[in-house]
Every structure is written in structure tokens, then in C-alpha cells.
Request: fold
Amino acid sequence: MATEDKNRATAAAILPLVGGAANVSSIAHCMTRLRLGLHDRSLVDDEALKAVPAVMGVVEDDTYQIVLGPGTVARVTPEFEQLVEEGRASGAPAPAPARTAEELADKGASLKAQRKAKNATPFKLFLRKIANIFVPLIPALIGCGIIAGLNGLLVNLGWLPSVTPALAAMASGFMALIAVFVGYNTAKEFGGTPILGGAVAAIIVFPGVANIDAFGQTLSPGQGGVLGALGAAVLAVYVEKWCRRWVPEALDVLVTPTLTVLISGLVTIFGLMYVAGEVSSAIGTFADWLLSTGGAGAGFLLGGFFLPLVMLGLHQALIPIHTTLIEQQGFTVLLPILAMAGAGQVGAAAAVYLRLPRNESIRKTIKSAMPAGLLGVGEPLIYGVSLPLGRPFITACVGGAFGGGFVGLFNQLGDSVGSTAIGPSGWALFPLLDGNHGLGSTIAVYAGGLLVGYVAGFVATYFFGFSKALLEEFNVSQEPAPSTVAATGPAAASDGSGGSGGSPAKEPAGV
Reply:
């Protein structure tokens, strides 16, 4: 009960600071953030929000995002939704119009930000849609991945043989039908009827497709996987929208769903499944080739450039690739390498802590954010420490590069290290690790990569992360800590593991 009261108290503290129930247009959450659509951005009290104990920071993107951290956000969101509903039911007043010059200026800034969001590049908007399709699947991927790891351990030890088949069913059931969930979410995200997207995607996993020949070969259930499901659902959305325009209203309820499933289904069976299957196979082959031939170099580049990719939001393009590899091979070999970016960030933060002994504000931020960073939630350290300081962000990338190179080297030597799910990183990734040489070897390589990332990030930051001018400016008692325009104050943060970036740090996988 105490925990429930704490979560409700957090929600109650946040609501008036975002303008009250009448100012909230939409509510959602991801791995670490409460995402709010707001009618009037100028009614939000950013500084007061950052002072709420449970709030790690705030971020401006397509929605207003309050960073609460993994676990907490999933518990606070339902309480917040209930408070908003209660506020609307009680007739909470609408947001007051701006009256002062300051309010008008804030309103103008809000409108400018909205226009900027509307003018986002089509590519980034597309990646945002892709992230919105796959991010809701991450909890199931994590849960099933951990069960799969537990089942594998029991099988290897020869324990509980009567239980392991049940665990295998629990772990594999979701993955067997993941195409259906992808199709459902894709149709929803692209403006179609979700159940029709799921119905078309279900064709891909239906066992009966094994009786169908296409392009001179017999189809296999699941061929094309999540990529095929995504393409099939997008096609279904366009067919459905075309039908809505041309089918008479009296016949719409019968004709539109029939034509949507029929046309999209035929194209899926006799085209998309084959094409998507070839693409999926190519992705797996390329990932294996990349790490087996140039593992150290590839790992160095992937680990070093992942934080900038998160900042730009481009890491979202990796989400369907991770999912495809998990679907094909049982694990993604890319995530453990990319997770090294978070290790570099932790090492860099430790160096900043020692290099700025007089700056109580930054040191306090580091102490509060370090546990989350060790568990793979690196955004508080990024936006509260390294990015505002500048150079430490670059040296954190150096740490990630060396950690990624270490893990990539062992992949090159034939010791594949993978993750059975996307989302977590850091220490939180240990329960999800899998590989081709046994759990002990896999854990040792990943732990070694983390250690290398910590040390390299620390050394690079301690010796090269500060200019003389930067030390003179920040190695003094200073409140509050340095901040960016988008996120300020202690432990200001941005998301996804990944989880996983988005903002730029979209669901990624954690960093």
C-alpha cells in the first residue's frame, strides 16, 4: 500500500505542474518516460517538475516527456491517468489564456517548438513510427527472453526436466506470433484498423502456407518474419484507406475488410513473404559476416558511434534489425556491442566526479544517476553531465568504442555474444545474454567488455575530457549543474533499448 501511495503522490505532484487535467491531451509511457500531449506548453512549470523527487528530468520532443526511470514510470502512469480522468469528470477549468508579455513569449516559444516538430524530416518521422511499432513489444521480449535463458540453464544442468517444456512454451509462444503483434501495431501507427493489420500479418505465421508455392519455392510458416508483417500491414492500411474512399457507405462494413484482407493477403503470400524472407536472411548473414571478419573494428565503430546515433534518433532504425536477428537466431549480436556505449558513459561520469571536486551540483547529479547508469539507463548521465560539458561526451564515446571493440573481437574469434531481447543494457542485460559457447563464456566476454568500457571512458575523460578553461569554469561550487536547452537540472534525461534510444534517445535500448 505504501508503494501505491508513493506512486499516486508522484502523479499528484506532477499533474498541477503540467497545467492540470484540462491541459493534458494524451498520456503514454515507454521504458523510462511519461509522455504527455499538452494543449498549452506555456502552462508547464519545468523547474518545479525537476524538483519532484521521482523526476529525473524532462525532455521536449513530439510530446512532453517526464523521465521517471524504468519500473517507476509503469506504476506512476496508471495513477496519473486516473487523476486526469477524475479531474476531467469534476469539470477542471480549461487552461487560462496567456495574458502577460512573458506568458505570450512562452506561448510563442511553444508554437515555434510545435512548428519545428511538424517540420521534422520524413526520415526521422518514419523512424519514430517504426519505434512506436516495436517499443510496446519490448516488455514481452524481455520477459520471454529471461524465461528462455532460465530454461536453457535448467536444460544444461539437467534440472527439473518436467518443467522445462512448459518454460520453453512460455518463452517461445510470443516469438511464434510476434508477426501478428507487429502487424497490429503497424496498422494502428499508420492510421488503419489495427485488427486488420494483425489479420493480414497472421497469414505469415499460419502453418497452411507450407502448402503454397511462390517464386518457384514452397513457403515456410514465419517466412519474412517481422519485416514481412510490417510490410503487409502497411499495405493493408493503404488498401483500407482506398476502400474507404470508393466503397459506398452502405457496403463499407462488408466490402472494406474483405478487400483489405484479400488484396493484402494475396500480395503478402505471392510477393512480400518471399521478398521479406530474402531481406531477413540477408540481414542475418551480413551481421554474422560483419562480426566474424571485422569484429574488433566493427565493434569499435558501433560502440563509439551509438551515443551520437541516439542523439540524432537514428538508432531507431536498428530496432527491426534487432528483432529480426532475435527471430532468426534466438539473440541479437548487435545489442551487447551497442550496450558498451553506456559503459563508456559510466566511466566518463566517474572521471568527471573526480575532476570536479568542488562542484557539488554535478557531483550530486553523478551520485544520483550512477546506479541507473550501471543498470543501462544512461540518459541522466548524458543529459545531466557529459553532454552539457561537451568534451566528456566525446570521451564517453571513446570508452564505448573500446568496449565495443573488445566484444566484437571475441565475436570475430568465434565466441558470439548476444541478447535474447532488446531494451535493457548495462548490468540489466546479464539475465538476457546468450551465445554459442555456453553461458559462462558469454557472461565473461560481456563483463569484460563492460570493464574495458568503464576503464577506457574513465581514462579518456580524466586525461582528455577537460580543457584548462573548462576546469576553471566548472571546478567551483555551482548550483544548478550545467544544462542543455532541451533538458536541464539534476539528472535531466532523455530516453531509448532498447531500447535503446528515442527524442533522439528513443527507446532504444537503454544506453
Summary: Residues 96-101, 480-511 have pLDDT under 50 and may be disordered. The radius of gyration is 24 Å. Strands lie at 24-29, 33-38, 57-60, 64-67, 213-214, 217-218, 417-419, 433-435. The first helix runs from residue 2 to 17.
